[in-house]
Amino acid sequence: MTDEYRLSASSLTSGYEERQVLEDLTIRIPDGSFTVIMGPNACGKSTLLRSLARLIKPTGGQVLLDGESIFNMPTKELARTVGLLPQSAIAPDGITVFDLVSRGRHPHQHMFKRWGHEDEAAVRSALENTGMTQLASREVDALSGGQRQRAWIAMALAQETPLLLLDEPTTYLDIAHQIEILELCSRLQREGRTLVAVLHDINQVLRYASHIVAMKDGRIAAEGTAEQVGTEETIRSVFGVDSRVIEDPETGKPLMIPKAPVH
Predict the structure, then answer these.
(1) Does the pTM of the predicted model rise above 0.85?
(2) Hey, where are the domains in the chain?
(3) Are the C-beta atoms of 158 and 104 separated by less than 8 Å?
(4) Which of 81, 104, 177, 180 is an S-S bond match for 155, by CB 3.0 to 4.6 Å?
């Protein structure tokens, strides 16, 4: 991880017609990091991610990629740099896993460059990395919730972008597959990609993230490493939970143990 930032937002105010969610928020995503956004429900995590991905146009401030507003960039150019796994993605009826994952190669296609060996290799690699090779010929509609989630992650991986945004990538997955996906994210980071994810499990965030952004009420409440953010004081302030933080015997990272409520 470096001190450089390809993706950033400054003075960002963003939300939906009925209400503003983010207010005057500034963030820089460290290159080569596995940045995880965490916080209580409705604090603005997904709104921030969607704003960084150009799915929501801010009412104030700006989102910059390599110093240029993402709203000024051609769609395919942005899609070759930033990949996105949105929440609750819906696949077309009857589409197979292989065809869905192949759609991740669309930004790399143009009039004079059609499907080639590098596209095939990218799709096969994405299927293998997500454990979906054996299900490549299955229709997405016939998969379990966890299998569908892994198919969508494979499509995002096939896009082969240097930046990857993942909105709750472990949703619908059992614990074994949650760990597989988080280990995959860590490996992609080690290989040089920059990842930004929204996660809910505090201990998974503390264990896997190289950079943590803790949000509350549409603002950044704390930011930094697991050791900097994973304190009893910060967890109490952000989540309203009294806890004991100890050293994880497996990783040496902070491990949060909630205290039993006093009745």
Answers:
(1) yes
(2) 5-81+161-258, 92-159
(3) yes
(4) 104
Q: Report whether pLDDT(142) > 60.
A: yes
Taking only the tens place, the pLDDT of each residue in 54-86 is 999 999 999 999 999 999 999 988 998 999 988
Tokens of 41: 């429900």
CATH numeric code, 5-81+161-258:
3.40.50.300
Backbone dihedral region for residue 157 (phi beyond 0: left; psi -120 to 50: alpha; all else: beta): alpha
How far is it, in rounded angstroms, from Cα 241 to Cα 258?
7
Please, which residues have CB within 8 angstroms of residue 48's CB and are 6 or more apart in sequence? 9, 12, 14, 22, 25, 27, 37, 215
